């Protein structure tokens, strides 16, 4: 197993925080370039024990060596913490993380859009009301997101998540359900699927460019 080297991340975040252009980076006013403390190995073991699943290696090493949450893509990484003896993620949209659902596989390997299952929208009357109810049930069915660990939000109920169970385990996916665009894997410039490390480092490099580093 290739060891992930995260030793440069905290110094780079600290350097970013001191740049005059740092406040112009999207989402920076939310996370404030702050990285919470990392998890201990005992804390990570307790977290994974409660989830019933081992987290993908890049994210779990980030939790151990860098931070449990804070500065990161969009409005920042949802931090994980212990609340009343139970581990949970917090932040706008973190409530989507159903611990019991994470162990169930995310079955998809290609982009899919639940909105494609909807019949044409009626023009008026009770049929239209029923269609809107069906739309909500179809688009926001929790079954679509089993095995997804939501890590950040981009505003307007748009999210990015890490697949922790299923054939796409370790990949980062976008949940654009709120825009009726469905779910899609995030990609590197060469077309390969983004892992957690790809995703975080891509954001870090873009932030440095945007801030004038």
Query: Structural class per helix/strand content?
Result: alpha+beta
Report the average pLDDT across residues. Answer: 94
Q: Beta fraction of the residues?
A: 5-15%
Reading off the top of the CATH hierarchy, the class is best stated as Alpha Beta
**H/E element order:** HHHHEEHHEEEEH
Number of helices: 7
The total of beta strands comes to 6
Shape: globular
Numbering strands along the chain, what is their spatial order in the largest sheet? 3-4-5-6
Largest sheet: 4 strands, antiparallel
Backbone CA Rg:
18 Å
User: How many discrete structural domains?
Assistant: 1
Q: Supply the CATH architecture.
A: 3-Layer(aba) Sandwich
CATH H-level name... which superfamily? SMI1/KNR4-like
Terminal CA distance: 33 Å
Low-confidence spans: none
């Amino acid at each position: 197993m290739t060891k992930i080297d995260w030793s440069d991340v905290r110094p780079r975040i600290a350097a970013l925080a001191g740049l005059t252009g740092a406040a112009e980076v999207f989402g920076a006013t939310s996370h404030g370039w702050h990285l919470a403390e990392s998890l201990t190995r005992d804390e990570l073991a307790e977290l994974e024990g409660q989830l019933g699943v081992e987290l993908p290696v890049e994210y779990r090493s980030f939790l151990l060596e860098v931070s449990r949450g804070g500065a990161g893509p969009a409005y920042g990484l949802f931090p994980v913490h212990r609340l009343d003896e139970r581990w949970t993620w917090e932040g706008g949209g973190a409530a989507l993380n159903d611990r019991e659902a994470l162990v169930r596989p995310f079955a998809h390997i290609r982009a899919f859009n639940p909105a494609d299952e909807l019949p044409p929208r009626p023009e008026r009357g009770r049929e239209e009301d029923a269609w809107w109810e069906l739309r909500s049930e179809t688009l926001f069915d929790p079954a679509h997101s089993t095995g997804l660990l939501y890590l950040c939000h981009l505003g307007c109920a748009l999210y990015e998540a890490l697949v922790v169970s299923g054939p796409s385990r370790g990949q980062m996916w976008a949940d654009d359900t709120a825009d009726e665009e469905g779910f899609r894997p995030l990609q590197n410039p060469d077309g390969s699927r983004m892992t957690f490390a790809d995703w975080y480092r891509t954001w870090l490099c873009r932030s440095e460019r945007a801030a004038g580093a």
